[in-house]
């Protein structure tokens, strides 16, 4: 935890504020907000994700090269996008 | 009876792919037999049309990648009926365009002077324009010469012509971005989704060397590589330059470039819709006032038997 690294204060830091407050860490790599939100939204899209993984398993033995999982992939991405889109801009400047 | 025949044809189409053959024998049989066969021919034609439409439909919807993944709607700050652009975002977006996109994409309809008062001051814009070299002329000796840019100059083109652009980009032409958010369906959301949407292809899909997978691009294989990488640009105002932030800023810039009149248009629209609504109420009242004479007439039919 960051509280272990920085000297003990009676102030609670939020993780992102703490990152910028650390001396000499001004060039802390900013984490992409969309990726973070997508990771969070994955849990709400378990059903299409499962559908995609099932499809991957189904076509894993395919040699013809004609089978693909675009449909299931799109279903999963649509679900994630629907979750991410309303929340993303609030995190951006 | 004619409807029943069409239903029969449609059902057969849904059951098997050999409906075209079924229809043709249906057509030939019916058309030849009846004396008054004109009606039968129209039925057959209608059936053929329905079959053709259905056949086309099953083939077209089979591949979702063809249309590209549906784009979500993002809550753009300038989206409301009386909302203006975020001009700080336009300024950052122009910086992203200049440093990331301008090496391949032209914006030949935008001049430096358009930026004055929108994203930069006049001095800043003059300094920015002076950094580029522009071919001008002919001079008094009849020769073309190069000079530093002025406010009135257009944004510089990365390639001299389309062929040079295609040659440098594996045959693909990086489109001019002056109007791109108006030139694509749901342009603002589409461009943002495209720029931030590069992913691994799904299982079973391989993209050839030189192309990259992007689900939002129709067909899925786009020539442009992922350009927005975290930290690619260092913003003047210190905003952390993440992929999503750069995407939002550059799309705001592109929206402004395509629709610089948006703010004035919204103000004008709001004002005139209000004024014309009042005028409508006034006109409605005045019409009813003048017509009241006629509408309150009483006609008496005086019939003597």
From TrEMBL, chain A:
Residues 32-93 form the Ubiquinol-cytochrome C reductase hinge domain. The keyword Ion transport does not apply. Keywords: Electron transport, Membrane, Mitochondrion, Mitochondrion inner membrane, Respiratory chain, Transport. It is found in: Mitochondrion inner membrane. The keyword Signal does not apply. InterPro entries: Cyt_b-c1_6, Ubol_cytC_Rdtase_hinge_dom, Ubol_cytC_Rdtase_hinge_dom_sf. Its main location: mitochondrion. Belongs to the UQCRH/QCR6 family. This is Ubiquinol-cytochrome C reductase hinge domain-containing protein. It comes from Hibiscus sabdariffa.
From TrEMBL, chain B:
The keyword Nucleotide-binding does not apply. PROSITE patterns: CYTC (PS51007). This is Cytochrome c domain-containing protein. InterPro entries: Cyt_c-like_dom, Cyt_c-like_dom_sf, Cyt_c1, Cyt_c1_TM_anchor_C. SUPFAM superfamilies: Cytochrome c, Cytochrome c1 subunit of cytochrome bc1 complex (Ubiquinol-cytochrome c reductase), transmembrane anchor. Keywords: Electron transport, Heme, Iron, Membrane, Metal-binding, Mitochondrion, Mitochondrion inner membrane, Respiratory chain, Transmembrane, Transmembrane helix, Transport. Its main location: mitochondrion. It comes from Hibiscus sabdariffa. It is found in: Mitochondrion inner membrane. Residues 88-240 form the Cytochrome c domain. Belongs to the cytochrome c family. It comes from the Eukaryota. The keyword Transcription regulation does not apply.
């Amino acid at each position: 935890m960051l509280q272990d690294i920085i000297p003990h204060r009676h102030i609670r830091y939020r993780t992102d504020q703490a990152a910028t407050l650390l001396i000499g860490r001004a060039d802390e790599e900013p984490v992409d907000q969309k990726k973070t939100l997508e990771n969070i939204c994955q849990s709400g899209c378990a059903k299409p994700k499962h559908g995609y993984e099932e499809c991957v398993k189904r076509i894993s033995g395919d040699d013809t090269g004609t089978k693909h999982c675009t449909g299931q992939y799109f279903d999963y991405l649509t679900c994630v996008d629907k979750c991410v889109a309303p929340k993303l801009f609030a995190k951006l400047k | 009876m004619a409807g029943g025949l069409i239903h029969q044809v449609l059902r057969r189409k849904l059951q098997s792919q050999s409906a075209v053959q079924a229809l043709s024998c249906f057509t030939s049989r019916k058309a030849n037999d009846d004396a008054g066969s004109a009606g039968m021919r129209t039925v057959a034609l209608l059936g053929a049309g329905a079959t053709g439409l259905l056949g086309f439909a099953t083939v077209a919807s089979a591949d979702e990648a063809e249309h590209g993944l549906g784009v979500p709607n993002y809550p753009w700050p300038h989206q409301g009926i009386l909302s203006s652009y975020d001009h700080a975002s336009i300024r950052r977006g122009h910086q992203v365009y200049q440093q990331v996109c301008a090496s391949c994409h032209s914006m030949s309809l935008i001049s430096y002077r358009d930026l004055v008062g929108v994203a930069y001051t006049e001095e800043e814009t003059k300094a920015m324009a002076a950094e580029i070299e522009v071919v001008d002329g002919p001079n008094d000796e009849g020769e073309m010469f190069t000079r530093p840019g002025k406010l009135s100059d257009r944004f510089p083109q990365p390639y001299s012509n389309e062929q040079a652009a295609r040659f440098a980009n594996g045959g693909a032409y990086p489109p001019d971005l002056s109007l791109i958010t108006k030139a694509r369906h749901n342009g603002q959301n589409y461009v943002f989704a495209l720029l931030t949407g590069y992913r691994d292809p799904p299982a079973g899909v391989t993209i050839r060397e030189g192309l990259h997978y992007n689900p939002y691009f129709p067909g899925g294989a786009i020539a442009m590589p992922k350009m927005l990488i975290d930290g690619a640009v260092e913003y003047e105002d210190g905003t952390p330059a993440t992929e999503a932030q750069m995407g939002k800023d550059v799309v705001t810039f592109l929206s402004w470039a395509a629709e610089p009149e948006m703010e004035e248009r919204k103000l004008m629209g709001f004002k005139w819709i209000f004024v014309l609504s009042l005028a409508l109420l006034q006109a409605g009242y005045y019409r009813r006032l003048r017509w009241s004479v006629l509408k309150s007439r009483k006609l008496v039919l005086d019939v003597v038997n």
